[in-house]
Every structure is written in structure tokens, then in C-alpha cells.
Specification:
- With 328 residues, the protein is an alpha/beta fold.
- It has 2 domains: 233 residues, TIM Barrel (Alpha-Beta Barrel); 64 residues, no CATH class.
- It contains 13 helices and 12 strands.
- It has a 7-stranded parallel sheet. It has a 3-stranded mixed sheet with strand order 11-10-12.
- Strand 5, helix 7 and strand 6 form a beta-alpha-beta unit.
- Bound molecules: iron/sulfur cluster (SF4).
- Iron/sulfur cluster binds next to loops.
Length: 328
């Protein structure tokens, strides 16, 4: 069954940092921190409206949840207690910074029934973290991840592709280190340069040497394929479509269907593996639910092969795992 979130955005509040890419007000699309009563109302409405909720989590996103004042954090967690459990939502998901995790914090989260914790790792290379003023190191990510796993929480890591001063090798290293940590889930966020951020200044001054869009789609699709191959679910690839982002973005790698572009590329590479110099007609089988991903956005894969004089037909087979291709 498909996983879903009731997303509650907690803005910048409590975060002592100003990372190069962050304007939380833009990302979360709201400036006001919700009260416990407002959160209760959101959950009550969502519970009444949703048909199946057993695979849905209440998710506090947008800021550094464990860095907000403890009394406010507990107010928010208390507010959702009546909506968790049998016949209600499955659990609580939070996102925070790697250096805002301690045993004391995890004890509180456990007590309130938090199930999943996501850490904004962003990069696992210290010079990139430093250049983007993250205020934590790769070692903090290792430490926090170990602690979270030792408490039995589901662990999620977030990775950004294309940060200031990051090279293709740095992106590869980040991917490999994340695989080494073995989180349950990963979110891949290609960088989007927003107004009123340090990245925005670098971008406008011309000091930000950026990858091309194609390079970032390439890197994101190989990261996606590698994570999935290693049993790590990629629950997001690309920033969610939002009028705030579209309005406030100066540059970077935003596309409303970014994930589909990456998945199309994974299928293209996997089909290319079977193409030889003589055969011009191929039938490929993919998972029945993934036919459109294999065909590519606006039939891009069919056309890509067609331009080389190759005809491909894609058929569905429920037994084939996601992203795998079989030649028929
Ligand atoms: S830690 Fe998170 S909330 Fe704080 S500035 Fe960085 S990205 Fe924004």
C-alpha cells in the first residue's frame, strides 16, 4: 500500500543556522509556526477525509524539529497523540539536523510515539558542508544515524545534489557514504537557488560554478538506482512542485516532474545494455506498473532509440522488479 504523509510545516523557528540554500519561509510556503490546537485541527480534518490511514504518518517537516524549544516540540507532539494508533494514522515522522540528536531528545521522541526520523545530511563531504555553512560535519551524520538506529526508529537521510563547491566526485562520495550508513529511506534534492539566500548571492555574482541540468539528472538517476539496488527506498527525488519555489527561484535544478525524468533515464540505460550493432527491433519487459517510466516522459526513450534507427516495444510483467528490464 502506498505511503502517505499528513505534512505539517514548521518554519525556520529555533534553527540557529542559515545554510547557504535555505529560506525556510519559501520552502515551507508559510511563515507562521502552527499552534498545538491548529495541528489538532489539521489531523482531525485529515482523519475524517482519508479513506485509508493505516499507512499514513503525521509528518513535521520544514525546519529542525528537535531544535525548536522543548516546550513547543512537546506541545506539537501532544497535539497529535489522539490521531495515532489502531484505526488512525500509523505514526509520526520528523525531520531535523544531524547535530540536533541526543539520547535525551530520542527518549522524548520515543515517549511520544515518533516512528521515523529524517536527517538533513545534504552532503557527506566536509568541505562541501563547510562551504554551504551547514554547521555540522559528516561525522555528525554518522553519529546521529547510529544513535537513531539503536533506538529502533526508521532512519531517513536527505541528500542535496549540486551544492556550492561540490564536484561530481563529492556527489559520488556522498552517495557511497549514505549507502554505507544504510538508512531505510533517502530523499534526493537537486539544488534550487532561491532569492534571499547565500546561494542566490553566489549565483548572481557568478562565483557559483554549477553542473548542467543534464548532469544533475544523470547523477540523481544513478544515485536513485544505486540506493534502490541496496535496499534503500528513495521516497523523494526533486523538490515538490510549489508556487512559492517557482516564484522565488533564481536558478538550479527544478522540474515539476524531476523524479520521472530520472526514472526514465534509469530505464534508458538498462535498455541500452541490451542494444547491439545489428538488431534494430527490441521488445523489453518491465514491471507492469512502470511501463510509462520505461517509455519516458513524453515518450522520450522511444524517441531516443528511434533517432538511432532502433524500434523498441515495452510490455508489462508483474514479476519483474522495479527498474529491471528483461529482453524478450
Ligand atoms: S538547518 Fe535547516 S532550517 Fe536551519 S538554516 Fe539550515 S536548512 Fe534551514
Amino acid at each position: 500500500m502506498k505511503h502517505a504523509n499528513i505534512s505539517i510545516f514548521i518554519p525556520h523557528i529555533g534553527c540557529p543556522h542559515k545554510c547557504s540554500f535555505c529560506d525556510q519561509r519559501t520552502i515551507s510556503g508559510t511563515q507562521k509556526a502552527p499552534t498545538g490546537a491548529e495541528v489538532r485541527e489539521i489531523c482531525s480534518k485529515a482523519l475524517a477525509e482519508s479513506k485509508s490511514h493505516e499507512n499514513t504518518e503525521i509528518a513535521f517537516f520544514g525546519g529542525s524539529f528537535t531544535a525548536i524549544p522543548k516546550s513547543y516540540m512537546c506541545e506539537l507532539l501532544s497535539a497529535v497523540q489522539d490521531f495515532i494508533g489502531d484505526g488512525k494514522f500509523k505514526g509520526i515522522r520528523i525531520s531535523t539536523r544531524p547535530d540536533c540528536i541526543t539520547s535525551g531528545i530520542l527518549d522524548i521522541l520515543k515517549e511520544y510515539g515518533v516512528t521515523s526520523i529524517e536527517l538533513g545530511a545534504q552532503s557527506m563531504v566536509n568541505h562541501v558542508l563547510e562551504a554551504n555553512e551547514r554547521g555540522h560535519t559528516a561525522e555528525d551524520v554518522y553519529k546521529a544515524s547510529d544513535l537513531i538506529k539503536s533506538y529502533g526508529f526508521e532512519l531517513g537521510l536527505q541528500m542535496m545534489i549540486g551544492l556550492y563547491e561540490s564536484t561530481a566526485d563529492d556527489e559520488l562520495e556522498t552517495m557511497e557514504r549514505i549507502i554505507e550508513i544504510r538508512p531505510d529511506t533517502v530523499r534526493i534534492y537537486p539544488v534550487v537557488v532561491l532569492k534571499n539566500t547565500k546561494l542566490g548571492e553566489f549565483y548572481q555574482s557568478g562565483s557559483y560554478r554549477m553542473f548542467t541540468f543534464e548532469q544533475v539528472v544523470n547523477m540523481s538517476s544513478s544515485a536513485m538506482a544505486e540506493f534502490e539496488r541496496n535496499g534503500i527506498r528513495v521516497i523523494k527525488c526533486g523538490l515538490h512542485a510549489s508556487e512559492f519555489v517557482e516564484k522565488d527561484m533564481l536558478g538550479g535544478f527544478y522540474h515539476p516532474a524531476f523524479r520521472e525524468l530520472c526514472e526514465g533515464l534509469i530505464y534508458r540505460y538498462n535498455m541500452e545494455y541490451y542494444i547491439n550493432e545489428t538488431d534494430r527491433n527490441y521488445i523489453f519487459a518491465v514491471n507492469s506498473l512502470c511501463i510509462s517510466k520505461a517509455v519516458g516522459q513524453k515518450k522520450s526513450n522511444i524517441e531516443y532509440f528511434s533517432r538511432q534507427g532502433i524500434d523498441i516495444k515495452i510490455i508489462g510483467d508483474g514479476n519483474i522488479p522495479k527498474y529491471h528490464v528483461e529482453l524478450r
